[in-house]
Amino acid sequence: MMSCSYDDNRLMIINQKNHSVCLETASDTLLQYNAFSNQEYSLSDQEYFLKKEVTPGDIIILHYMGQGGWPGRVQHNKNQKLNLFVYHSDSVRKHDYNFDALEGRELEKISLSLEELEARNWHVIVK
Known about the structure:
- The chain has helices at 45-50, 69-76, 89-94, 99-102, 114-119, and strands at 5-15, 21-26, 53-54, 59-67, 81-88, 108-113, 123-126.
- It has 127 residues and is an alpha+beta fold.
- It has one domain (7-126).
- It has a 4-stranded antiparallel β-sheet with strand order 3-2-5-6. It has a 3-stranded mixed β-sheet with strand order 4-1-7.
- The longest helix is centred in the middle third of the chain and has 8 residues, at 69-76.
- It starts with a strand and ends with a strand.
């Protein structure tokens, strides 16, 4: 029997702030360095965060490659929620942020259950 692994692109983040933001998801309510250990690219932490930058009024679709897609990821998270960390892009650039500099400095932390995500049609608004 084969397990099904696919690219799930249902998660859409909408930036309604008046400035650009950088995003990251994590399996816990605290962002841990191992979140970045699966990088396919040799990027600095700053470059890694800027890959998920969203300008004001714009959207980004976050992909998840894995068994069960985003619902499976949410169900396997420690709190069984999507944990989204939002950072001010200017701060990431200005301070040449690395993981240690980012720890605890998020602009916003959003945690949503699978039911909440489904009710929002997997659209998350950052405002």
